[in-house]
């Protein structure tokens, strides 16, 4: 929220404020006029998160009875985004036109404080939808780009040929790091083999078809070096 009173701010002021916040998204919310009906959202011509945000807001508007005019873009003579708020912000930005104030049907959707609040909630839900989708996308991309094999340092086995409960040291930390990567064990890398580490070894043994004895030995190490996610 940038102001509490009915004042007009320049595009430069709005953009500078948006950029100073360091936010993930920027929204400039308006009511339309000049003939027509329904809601529309303007975003950058490059699409991306702004377009996703626009679609999500319009979807939420439709749920409260407002029809959608779609997500739109506009270019200036230089081939850049026409609207300064979209062009000059550092984050994905949209201009939301909630409806036409000179249309009696549209006005019924925002002519009382309760209706205005409902419209504000719809916009907020559209924002939350977008954040959720973008986070899911980033996680998916990160997973697909992640290394399929383990690129950490594998432990050297003790002279007896396997790790057991009570073992301590740097090699145990390396084992715990591998188990965190391979089976998402969420172990504290304290360098001590306790019950949690033993259970993680058993889980790794189960996934690799080895005997579930909780002892990380030569067969486990061989399987670890071949393990792919």
List key phrases describing it.
single chain, 229 residues, alpha/beta, four-stranded mixed β-sheet
Give the arrangement of secondary structure elements:
Layout (H helix, E strand, L loop, with lengths): L10 H11 L4 E7 L6 E4 L5 H16 L4 E5 L11 H5 L4 E8 L3 H4 L5 H33 L16 E2 L6 H14 L11 H13 L8 E2 H9 L3
Parallel strand pairs: 1-4, 2-3
Antiparallel strand pairs: 2-4, 5-6
Helix pairs in contact: 2-5, 6-7
The rounded Rg comes to: 28 Å
* Widest sheet, order of strands: 1-4-2-3
Please, what is the average pLDDT?
A: 93
Shape: elongated
Major sheet summary line: 4 strands, mixed
Q: Which range does the strand content fall in?
A: 5-15%
Kindly name the structural category.
Answer: alpha/beta
Structure summary, number of beta strands:
6
List the secondary-structure elements in sequence, H or E: HEEHEHEHHEHHEH
User: Which range best describes the helical content: under 10%, 10-25%, 25-40%, 40-55%, 55-70% or over 70%?
Assistant: 40-55%
What is the count of DSSP helices, taking H or I runs of 4+ residues?
8
What are the segments in which pLDDT stays under 50 over at least 5 consecutive residues?
A: none
What is the first-to-last residue Cα distance?
A: 44 Å
Description:
The mean pLDDT is 93. Helices cover 46% and strands 12% of the residues. The longest helix has 33 residues, at 113-145. Helix 2 links the parallel strand 2 (39-42) and strand 3 (68-72). The protein is built from 8 helices and 6 strands. It has 229 residues and is α/β, with parallel strands linked by helices. It has helices spanning 11-21, 48-63, 84-88, 104-107, 113-145, 170-183, 195-207, 218-226, and strands at 26-32, 39-42, 68-72, 93-100, 162-163, 216-217. The strands form 2 sheets. Strands 1-4-2-3 form a 4-stranded mixed beta sheet. Strands 5-6 form a two-stranded antiparallel ribbon.
